[in-house]
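Case study 2.
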Amino acid sequence: MVLVSSQKRLMTLTVAVAFALFAAATFAKLFLGKGKALFVSDGFYYYSYTVSLVLDRDLDFSNQYRFNKGWANPRFTRFIKKTGRLENCFGIGAGLLWLPAFSFIHLGVLTAKTIGLPLTTTGYELYYQLPTYLWSFLLGLLGMGLLYRLLVEVFEQRHAFWATVGILFGTALSNYAFLHANMSHWVSFACATAYLYSVFQVYRRPEDWRWWLISGIALGVAAMVRYQNAALGVLIVGLLWQLIRQGQWQTLAVGVIAHIAATIVTFLPQMLAWRALYGEPVTNPYGNYVRWLSPNFSYILWLFVYSPLLLLALWGFVRPFPKTLPTAFVVSVGLAILGQLYVNCALPELGGYGVRRMTDFFPYFGIALANALRILDEQKGQKWSLSLVGVGVVINWLLIANHYLSQLLSGGHFHF
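Prediction:
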């Protein structure tokens, strides 16, 4: 009972620290940031889906793009002759996930206007942005809770807890959790975690078609948030091989059909959006952006420069895992990470602080980090594992502080 109570206090403290950091970063973003707004940079275009769907009930962004001056890069507003609309090359998923908060606030604003309050409804006022921004942070925090829940099903509670803390506070994911909840990476992380968790349940109970269905939905949502998440489907490869070896053909057929069907149906909003914007239900809005045949593998080194705690996770990957964790699942997680590394190395640039496109998949490293902490506990004692997580957290925040203080000192504002 004492141990459980202590763990609850630690979790409560962790959530409190997370909210404090988020509040401080949001304050800095509003009062010191370039543009003095929340949904800026790529986040502006994700948010445009939300605003247009609720206020205009369409995907004509001519109203929304009037606000991109000083907030976002205008080169993402190409006119599409085939449809007569302005493009939005970013996924619709984040915009859909933000709908509940934005719609609730819009209803409140309309109610306030009926009693005479002089409020405007462009969707870019701070009273729209701030609650939606908070909701985005909560979605990511929910994903972090899901990661902890997955880890605690395999590892001892303390290893699961400190691995979760390490991923949240000790890697470059912190930058997108606390300072850039307007962008897709924090929400994408939550979706990638939801898929990881649901696929893990399929590995444990492959005869339960409902988890096949849920995992398919999770993959569809994740792919709508960021297209590259579709490659996470490799997570079920190990299970397929396992079922084939065991001759469970009926389970395999029902599961695969449910998984694929759920993924396609869930992804339909993105296909409808592409049709409305580009005139085709399936397209590549980025064009020839990816260099598939000439990846720059040096990007992998930068991943560990920004997040050195991942080196400990890497060590955990090559160590024996608990027998409760299916080997096929571990191998598939490794393949998923390698696949995403290849995709990111095939892109023409790192993509922002911390190799940001890889931060979405840091929960997958969380499994190996928990395993590393378990082994360290057994061989060296708990002080070693806690010390290494602590060092990782300190280094991470020193790197983040240096990054933004350099911007503040050189340009007079944060480049949010």
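The chain has a mean pLDDT of 93.
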